[in-house]
Design a protein that fits this description.
This protein has helices at residues 2-17, 20-34, 44-51, 84-94, 98-102, 123-139, 157-164, 175-183, 202-205, 231-240, 255-264, 289-292, 302-310, 324-332, 335-338, 341-344, and strands at 53-54, 57-61, 67-71, 112-117, 147-153, 185-187, 193-199, 214-217, 247-250, 267-271, 280-284. It is an alpha/beta fold. The termini are far apart. S-adenosylmethionine binds next to helix 6, strand 5 and helix 9.
Length: 345
């Protein structure tokens, strides 16, 4: 800093003396000579390799110019179809109508609980936090319902890597993700928003976390991480949420994922499209979930059922042949397809 102060002072003085050009020529040579022991252009390759990877993760630059985190072993990119914050907002925050939920007239004890499954580089979690802060400024904190954000993650490398390069990840220019990395929790100054990290395997943490109202379900795809997309895991989620009308939002629109959700008891609707995807998925624990939702999402109907009957992904891969008839019956007799659709939509 002293060096730059002195340099600027000298430049200003040379301009006032009207001999900046000669000052520039002398200094350029002098500064290059004195810097020879500390080359100002370190070898580029070594620098990239050293800083843009951590564990199984690396920084990925999309052809559209935004940065994401990629898992090296699977090649999967977190939020690959759009800028991470745009997708987080569109798919999770806007679709769950978070601002309206925060303004619902409830008692102070009736906090809104969000599960952020797969914290990753925290795009979804930070989108929820920015939404809360915007509501706080625009509506006043006295009008807001308390929010408890619970993130699940077993590997903090993606967040640590992105935080090290926060200039490439605008959503991390905030104190909260750094506190999460350091202490595993952060609280908004109003005390109305608590963010906590449950570190470990999500499968083992389901029963210890507070029952959610909204679930932002964002693990890697079933191809990379099939353990988090099975009927068995969705059945455990459904059971955990039994006491509430809960909603699960996910980017996947695959038949296999939707049928796994239906087999667990969820009522399943098509969610908004994002990037090249024409739709995504919302799952409700209650039959009237879609009907009561402010955006009235479309529950899958007979058309989807017909496609499922013809699908290669009709049955979970691990399902024994002799269990197929029961499974088929479970889906065909799901209330979503048998009840009068006007009652549910
Ligand atoms: C697609 S990334 C999540 C992206 C993140 N939601 C975001 O907004 O940046 C999936 C994350 O889930 C985590 N994950 C996968 N399986 C898990 C498990 N069984 N328990 C906890 N975390 C898991 C991975 O480590 C990875 O960070």
């Amino acid at each position: 800093m002293s060096f730059y102060h002195r340099l600027m002072r000298e430049i200003r003085e040379s301009i006032l003396r009207d001999d900046f050009l000669s000052y520039y020529e002398t200094q350029r040579l002098e500064l290059t000579r004195t810097d020879q022991d500390n080359p100002h252009r370190p070898p580029k390759k070594a620098r990239t390799v050293q800083h843009s990877r951590l564990g199984d993760y690396e920084i990925h630059k999309s052809p559209h110019g935004f940065f994401s985190i990629r898992q090296i072993s699977s090649g999967e990119v977190m939020h690959s179809v759009n800028a991470p914050s745009d997708e987080a907002n569109k798919l999770y925050v806007e679709q769950s109508c978070l601002p309206a939920r925060l303004l619902e007239q409830k008692t102070l004890a009736d906090q809104l609980v969000i599960w952020d499954v797969g914290l990753g580089a925290a795009s979804n979690a930070m989108a929820a936090i920015y939404c809360f802060e915007k509501c706080c400024v625009e509506e006043g904190e006295n009008t807001l319902r308390p929010l408890r954000l619970v993130s699940f993650e077993w590997d903090l490398d993606p967040l640590a890597l992105a935080a090290k390069h926060a200039s490439r990840f605008p959503h991390l220019r905030h104190r909260a993700p750094f506190k999460i990395l350091q202490d595993g929790r952060w609280q908004h100054e109003s005390s109305l928003l608590q963010w906590e990290l449950l570190q470990g395997n999500f499968r083992g943490l389901i029963d210890s976390a507070p029952v959610p109202d909204l679930i932002f379900y964002d693990p890697f795809s079933a191809k990379t991480n099939d353990a988090l997309w099975t009927g068995e895991i969705f059945a455990r989620l459904f059971e955990r949420c039994r006491t509430k009308s809960a909603e699960l939002y996910t980017y996947s629109a695959s038949t296999a994922v939707r049928v796994a959700l239906l087999s667990a008891g969820f009522f399943v609707a098509a969610g908004v499209g994002t990037g090249p995807k024409s739709d995504t998925t919302i799952a409700f624990t209650r039959a009237n979930g879609a009907k009561d939702h402010p955006l009235s999402p479309r529950l899958l109907g007979q058309e989807w059922l017909m496609r499922w009957r013809r699908s290669d992904a009709k049955f979970p891969t691990a399902l024994a042949n002799k269990a197929r008839a029961n499974f088929e019956n479970l889906i065909e007799s799901h209330r979503q397809f048998t009840d009068d659709s006007r009652k549910l939509c």
